[in-house]
Amino acid sequence: MLPAPSRKADCKSCRERKVICDKKKPSCTACMEANRPCGGYDLGQFFINMSSQGPPPSWSRSQHAQKYLVVDLASQPSRAEQPHVPFTDVSTISRPSSVAPNPWTLPTFPNPDPTNIHGISSLFLDLYYRRFTPNTLSSNSLQPGMECGGWRSLLTHWIGESTILDTAIGAMSACFIGTQYQDDNLMDQGNNMYLNALQMVQQALPESNSAKRRDLLATTLVMSSIEIFMSNGGGGSQLTHIDGATRLLRLVFDHQNFEELHIYILNQGLFEAISTRRRYEFSSASYRPLIRRLYSCPRTFRNDLYFQWTELILPLPNILAAVDDAVAAANSGNPAPPSAINAILDDLAVLEQSLAPWYESLKTNMHGPWTFQNAHVSAEGVPYPLQFVSIEVCTLYNLHWMSQLLLLEAESTLLSHLQNPVPAHLHPQIFEYSSMICRSVQYCTSNTSFAAAESMFLPLFAVTSYYARVRDEERMKWCVSCFTRISQEQRIGFSFERLNFAEGTVNEGGSRRHSVWDEA
C-alpha cells in the first residue's frame, strides 16, 4: 500500500510555517513569494526503481499505466509495487493546431538596438534564461553555464574579439528577441546581420591564420544557434555550421592548443552525430589521447558530471553508424560476417562498462527522480510524470537513459542479425528507458526557459527516432507533438526536416549543399 498523503511531501519551510505548499521544484511558490530558502523536500518517498525485474512502466491504448515506486534508493526490493492508475487514450494527447500562449508574461519590449552588442546580448540572456519574473529567477531556472552546451553564458566575454563575432552575436540576439516579441522588423535586422556575418566569414577563411582564430570557432557556435532561432528552426542549414566547426576544430587539433571553447565545439558535433547516427571524426580511437587533454582544460562552470558523460560517450556515434551499416548490408542481401558483428558487440560492451562508474557517481551525488502518489495524466503528459531536484539533474539522468536506450537497442539489433537469442530483459529495459525520457519532458519544457527546454532536445529526439525504427507510430507521433508544443510555447521554429529524418522519410544519402565553411 502506498502511504496516505501527508505534509511530509511539503518543503521544509512550509511545514515549519504551516502554510500551503504547491510542491514545485526546486523552490515552491510560497517560498519564492516570501523570498525564503525553500529548505528542500522529503524525497524519501516514491523514488524510481530502475533495477526492478518486473514489467516496464507503459503508456498505450491497451494497457494501464504502471509505475515502480519504492521507499528509498538504499533498500530497493526485488519487485516494486505496481499500482494501476486510470488510463488516458494517447490519441487525445497534444495535437496543438494554433500557437499556444506563453505561460509567462514577457517584460515590456525595450526596443533594442541590434548594433548595441552589449545591450542586446544581455537582453538575449535574460530571455534565454527567463530572468524576468518578479523574483528575478523562475522556479525552474537553469543556472548560466549549466544549459545543454553551456557556452551561451560566455557571450558577453566574447564581445569585442572581432567584427565577425560581434555581428553574429548581434544577429543571434536579434533573431531570438524578435521571435519572442513577434517583431518582424527586429527579425529582419537579425537576418541581415546574419548574412553580413556569413560574407565576412567567407572572406576570412582563405586567410593563412584562419585556423588559429578562436573568433571564427566561436562564430560557428553562434551561427548554428541563429539557425535554431530563425523561422527554419535549424535543419540542414544548421548542419552546415556544425560541419564547418568540425573542420576548424580538426585544424586546432593539429596545433594542440586547447581551451574551453573547443570543448563546446566538440560536444556540439557529438550531439549532432548521435541524433543523426552518423560517424563523427573525433569519435575514433586515434583521437582519444588528445580528447583527454582537451577535456582537462579549465572551464568556467562546474558541471563535471555533464562533461564526464560527453567524454565517455564519444565512441557512440561510430558504433551506431556501424550498427546501421550492418542492418543495411543485411537488408541488401550481403550481410556482414559474424566476426564484424561480434566486434561491434565488443565495442558496445566496452562502452557500457566505461559508463557504469559514471552512473554510480551520478546516483551517489544527485537525488534520482521521483513521482507523486496522485500523479494524474494531463492532456499533454504521460502517467506519473517525473520530478527532479533541478533541471541540471533532469538533464544528466535523461542523458544516461538515452545512452542506455541506444546501447541496448543496438545490442538487440546485432544479436537478432546473428540469429542469436535476445536476452529476455533487453526489450523491457529499452521500453523502460524510453518511458523515463518521455515522462521527463514536462519537467524540463513546461513553463521553463528555452535554456531548460533545450536540454531535452537530444533525449526526446533519440526516443522519437527509436519509436520510428520500431514502427511504433502512436508513440512517435506523441513525441513529435511534444516538439510542436515546445516550438509554440518557446516561440521558435523547429525543423521538421529533422523529425522527417526520424520518420525515415528523408533520403539519408542525399547530397549536402555547399557551405561557406567548406573553404576551411
TrEMBL record:
Residue ranges annotated for the Zn(2)-C6 fungal-type domain, each copy included: 10-38
Lineage of the species this protein comes from: Eukaryota, Fungi, Dikarya, Ascomycota, Pezizomycotina
Family annotation (SUPFAM superfamilies): Zn2/Cys6 DNA-binding domain
Protein name (database record): Zn(2)-C6 fungal-type domain-containing protein
Keywords, alphabetical: Nucleus
Gene Ontology MF term list: DNA-binding transcription factor activity, RNA polymerase II-specific; zinc ion binding
Any Pfam family: Fungal_trans_2
